[in-house]
Design goal:
Structural class: alpha+beta
Number of helices: 4
Number of strands: 7
Strand content: 25-35%
Shape: elongated
Radius of gyration: 42 Å
């Protein structure tokens, strides 16, 4: 009896502990919404897209219609997210503000290919543990997709890099010459695939059956002529 009572008491204690844990979980505060408002000190100077020099035509997509994708890494929790922006726009992610001023890439006829974006990065942090939170500009310059080591965002917590600059240039679509070359290549590949088909008709086995023996056909004609000559 004592053993059974001890076992029941242990089960009741375990149930009570589980109930306390569930109650504690239910009492956890809900996560706060992430702040997305641009700080007033930064919003006073909005990002300005780079304009083409006077008299120089704009080649490709206009600057304000280009789209850049920036990667943002939080090194504390190893979370990465994409920030899609157009030149002249400002985005806030938590305590990081990104400004995009320009987005460029080399035309398809130039080598080596490269993509770049002029970005400014602001972070809200403390310069020293005793100071209050404040916004600090930690980067201002060009970020390059294929050469990230040329300019690096140096911060102990955040990292920013360029993933893509979407724009187009005249002539990137399929031209008539390229379409003709593609069709000729398709015809060439089709004829190459059909070339083995005529080979059986030219096989050596059909050659001996072509000639006929004329001797048996000429013999009856000679006999008819010989019978009619005496008459």
């Amino acid at each position: 009896m004592r053993g059974r009572l001890t076992g029941r008491r242990g089960i009741l204690a375990a149930v009570a502990a589980a109930t306390v844990l569930l109650g504690a979980c239910k009492g956890e505060p809900e996560p706060t919404a992430q702040e997305t408002a641009i700080p007033e000190a930064i919003a006073r100077n909005p990002a300005k897209a780079a304009a083409a020099p006077a008299g120089q035509p704009v080649i490709g997509t206009p600057m304000n219609e280009r789209v850049a994708t920036l990667g943002l890494l939080n090194k504390r929790n190893n979370l990465t997210q994409d920030v899609v922006m157009k030149p002249g726009q400002t985005r806030r992610v938590g305590n990081v503000v990104l400004k995009l001023a320009a987005c460029e890439k080399t035309p398809p006829w130039e080598r080596p290919a490269e993509e770049g974006a002029f970005v400014q990065v602001f972070v809200e942090d403390r310069a020293t543990p005793q100071e209050a939170l404040a916004w600090h500009k930690i980067f201002s310059g060009w970020l390059f997709r294929h050469s990230p080591a040329l300019n690096v965002v140096q911060h102990p917590v955040y990292d920013v890099w360029l993933k893509k600059c979407e724009m187009s240039f005249p002539g990137e679509e399929d031209s008539p010459a390229s379409a003709a070359s593609a069709s000729s290549a398709a015809k060439a590949s089709g004829s190459a695939s059909e070339s083995p088909a005529p080979a059986p008709s030219a096989s050596p086995t059909s050659a001996p059956a072509a000639p006929a023996t004329p001797a048996p056909a000429a013999a009856p004609a000679a006999d008819d002529g010989a019978d009619e000559a005496p008459a």
